[in-house]
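Archive record
______________

***
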Amino acid sequence: MKTPIIIAGALILSSFASLRATGFTCTAPPLICKAAANQDRSLYVRDHSRYQQKIHIERFKLKGNDSEKTEEIRDTTAEVEPATKPDKTGEYPVVVRVISDTDKNGHPRRSVDEGEKTFLSFGGVMDLAFFPLLPEKIEYYDFKEVPADRKGEKWYSFSPKSEATQVPLASGVVELDVDTGEVMTIKIDGLHNLDKIDKLAHKVRSFQATIDYSQFEGALRMPTLAAGNGVSEVPKFTGNFKFSFQEGKYVLVSKIQ
């Protein structure tokens, strides 16, 4: 599946190779190093773009007979873009604006609060799952090649080193194009050190997801489809949950350095 991406014509795609990861020293398997550079370039362009995210989430409690009691079914669409002004740290925060939403029974809301807290508001948690292999995090992982089910791919399991307790990290399996290191799919089986993201993130007690990445112009891989489940103790989002997710409609809105 290909999802359209719109990028200003003055931006030369071949220049992505030099974005952000300049000077990156990688001691992981060579294909993992290529994947890290790919994730770095993709996140950089994504952070300079406006795009849409859609999520369908079902929140439920498990009953004694292994059945589920549904507590919420919700569909939310948000527009995400970088802020026009930096915050106190000098960084440009990401602004998440809800543009359509439902009540807890899945019925469309007539009036939508743009600042409503939804699961999409926890972008740090989602981004950790979508971009776990950034160059600055590679040194904190152990990698092991595992059998691949598809020709033309190499698969690696990754997990935090025992001493890596101060950096938000993920664990799972990454499926890579054997020649380019492009990220095809990542299967996340856990997120770690979430207290290093913010005071609420660590209340996501478990998180599993399968994330598929689409190619754009032969230069980028973006997380366009995902599905998964977990357990949350975040206020207003407590209980077991499962979700499906889409992302797309990228438009570059701030300058690429």
Q: What stands out?
A: The radius of gyration is 18 Å.
